[in-house]
Fold:
Amino acid sequence: MASSVALFVPCYVDQFFPHVAIAALTVLERLGIQVDVPEGAACCGQPAANAGFAREGHSTIARFVDVYAPYERIIVLSGSCAVHVKQHAGEVAAHGGHADTAGAGVAERTTEFCSYLHDELGVDWIAGLGATYDGRVAVHIGCHALRGLGLAKPSELQVRPFDKVRALLGAVRGLEIVDLARPDECCGFGGTFAVAEPAVSTKMGRDRLRDVATHGAQALVSTDMSCVMHLDGLARRERMGLPMYHVAEVLAGTAGAR
Amino acid sequence: MTQRSFELPVVGASGRVDHPAAAAAFNADVARTEWHDASLWFVREKRDRAASTVPGWEELRARASAIKEHALTHLDEYLVQFEANATRNGMQVHWARDADEHNRIVHGILSAQGASRLVKSKSMLTEECGLNPYLEARGIEVVDTDLGERIVQLRGEGPSHIVMPAIHLRKEEVGDTFHDHLGTPAGLAEPNALAAAAREHLRQRFLAADCTLTGINFAIAETGGFVVCTNEGNADLGMALAPIHIASVGIEKIIPRVEDLGVFLRLLARSATGQAVTAYSTHVHGPREGQALHVVLVDNGRTRQLAREEFWRSLKCIRCGACMNTCPIYRRSGGHSYGSTVPGPIGSVLTPGLDLDRYATLPFASTLCGSCTAVCPVMIDLDTQLFRWRQRVVENGHVSLAKRASIDGATRVLDRPRLFRLLGAVARIGLRILPAPLARRAAGVWGRTREAPVPPPQSFRAWYRRHRGGAA
Ligand code: SF4
Structure:
């Protein structure tokens, strides 16, 4: 093991959005964090569990625990995968040479990319990246990252406002964030929901895109590529010409480079 | 109707609620869907503004949750205490195990007094129990007196929302209904004129009624009294005029002390409609002079839900409707798509407990976005309970074998990273070599409205091996 910090790249990011994982790795390395991307766990088990197959998904999260147990920090490149690991890794019992507590330890030490940058490295350090982006963007924080990880104040709660994603993007020169009418409305992806309830899922996504477009955003920046996969699929079908990026791409300076 | 090429956990065989199909039918009318969504979002925003005026709103929610959890875990004691105190106050207390027993008790009270004209207000419980058809079949005239409930009653529909029962209807549709049933001029759709027509129509029913039935928002164990919260004053009119008052209440509506009311009354109206307080919060501590006052305590599956470790907290619900107003699925599918008296997130948690087979699609009518949990004034962990019901649905076999097999297959694949990567490559190449329409069909439902992701030349893992020399 070369490093005590691991990056977990969820299956769909690995297959469909490799540039996002490359950007995340680049950002971490530039910030001086030595990162491993260990092999052996392709998925955290969340898609199966949210579809009602937590039992079947159990072997998947058990493997996740196996692979990531040796690391002190586990950075997940997805808010919803991170929430799943934090909530369910503790249910993994002793197996494969690991102690009973391995799962709970992994749950405890798991974080998400933006949370890690904001909470553990700090915005000043991020500013050192010297990232620039010329344009107006809308920000879409995945619901699990928002309410499960606390990346920003959810609109329902009556607490002091905060927004870690905006804070990170505030370190990007030239980038302007537009306000949306519904700052944290769900995009309608929801894993199997996208295909189990196609009518509502599609409507939710279209409504979200309309909010983004009518407020003059030239691009969408998100914490979660699963939301983006859905929103981008809808936007391209309707020829909206709205590019979408992960926060990591903006920080790495590769947004717009594709 | 939707055409479905994806196998749902439960397919709409006879009698089963098929939420996706109903939601698709609702969405076929895009204008209505957008207007419905906007109406409810408007209420949600009013709620946000109202909540923001209360210092310590989150502490208040936590307090309300704690009081309800305490009451529910001591429900046996508080129910008996309520019965004793209510009896001392001159009320007659009845216990109903289920909907049928509730209906029989109500009918018994009516027939003992020879009553045949019932005015009803503010009671989702009687909807749940199917009281109206039960009484109508026995020659009792039942008139719902909340404006929204009266509208849906005239139309032969159920309520689509627990606080705004006719929120799915446009004013023109209400105008048509009133024209058909109340004789208002054709084409009249001006809300004030319609309300005036309804008031006139209902006034006659109030004067003629020989019994009134209300719900109860809070039954107070300590005093044996109860509180009814309404905006239209119809419950009060009914109580003031009719010689018999029946109040039906689910057993979970008990709160221990009168001082607890201060917590709940501050939360209820703000969460429900964004009002500081409902127009009428009527405290009843005994019958009027010469009036008979009956309270019917109804179980109807509540003790079963209370016994479920994973779901008992759903009984904390004070029926404010905020989880419906905020739910992005409810707003875009309408209350009727749930096929349940209580729709939306809380309905999808409560109703499967009554009949898991029939309501198996409801826990899946959610993205698990968690907005309901964050808005709920009694902090019910709705998204977590929806997740748990999904597991119960699958465990109980309410899922097609085909879907199970495919997920098993996917799990096996994902357990073997190399095989997964191989299949990933095949899939990615497949998307490149297939003609777009064919690839679209292969992507099935996804592709009906969405493009598939653009397949990259190589996966991240392949890139990583090449550039970081990762072991493999
Ligand atoms: S679950 Fe909570 S938000 Fe929904 S109706 Fe009940 S009290 Fe209101």
Chain A is about 50% helix and 15% strand. The first helix of chain A runs from residue 11 to 16. Chain A has a mean pLDDT of 93.
